[in-house]
Amino acid sequence: MRFDAPRRPGWRDLRAELRRGLTEGRLPVFGLPDPAGDRSGDRSDEWFGGPGGDRAGGRFGGWETSDDLLVAVTVEYGDPALAWLEVETARWDGTIRSTPDLRETLRQHLRLAGVRFADVTWDESETAIVVDGRELTARVMRAGDDWWAARVVFDGGAFGELEVGLVAYRKAFEPRIVGLPDAVVAEMLNAPLARQQWPQAELSREPEDPGGEPHRRLVHLVLRSAREQVVWLDEGGPAPRMPVTWPEIWRSAIRRQADLSGESEAVAESAVQSLLSQLTSLQSDAGWFREDERLRERAISETLLFATGLSVDVPSRPAQEAWQEREGTRRLAPRPAVEASAQADDHWLSLWGEWARRAR
Q: What's the rounded Cα separation, in Å, for the pair 162 and 192?
């Protein structure tokens, strides 16, 4: 049976995009060998649960495009909730994309699983892998007993340089990869596609609501979340989360902004988003903001006074206006000139630096 996406205005036909990309012949699709073939020395029964197991049940798990070119496609095997293996075929030449770091590939999976990087043993090695009958050398990265990733780069003939990457959870290393026959690819294309969505990370405990005036309550919550996000990216573990009162906190700040400014809630929401963006950028880019609590609280107070219109005559006014100019530069075009954007960033940050030196 062939499945096709419903034709509804404005909906992307993901299946058609993938089918078109594969039909253009830019990329082959690699996967696991057919279980009915030669299985000498094959341990698939151990990790797919029976003769042949899920080898015959591969499915498209995702794909990537760059400027409308299909650059990577992933075939999944196993149960996503219990034990699984992904085989990604990629061709990056002619695009602005590049090979993702093998360790970072594993780190992202561990983040989503709520695993701290320090809680697993990391090991990197090389091993033989057979790709369409050719014995090649693959780099392998392991994280504890459950996770591993591997990558091999080789000449794909008419396809140019190809990469095949494998990522697995609770699966033994797979030593053989093959180019999937057209009939198998067509069968997967005509099967129901997996839902295209980001995996949900395991969440940390419910954070404490800081309370207080709506704007300040929102600011402190967002800055704390941004700090926790940096730690999570660096160390893994359960993902940061917002309190269950987050929607009410957000709407309360928007209503307060509208009351103070006399603007519509839509305009007020843009203003709140801008002030939060400025403060989180300061937290990311300015050491004094992170390290000096007194300066940080003063910068927050002046930003709130300026953004709400309660007082535009604040000592940091040049920096506040530079932020507005910076935002305008970024809105002029979807892809502003890199040089102009960098200059606006530097000018804004230098004005805040001058403010911090005077305020000390």
A: 27
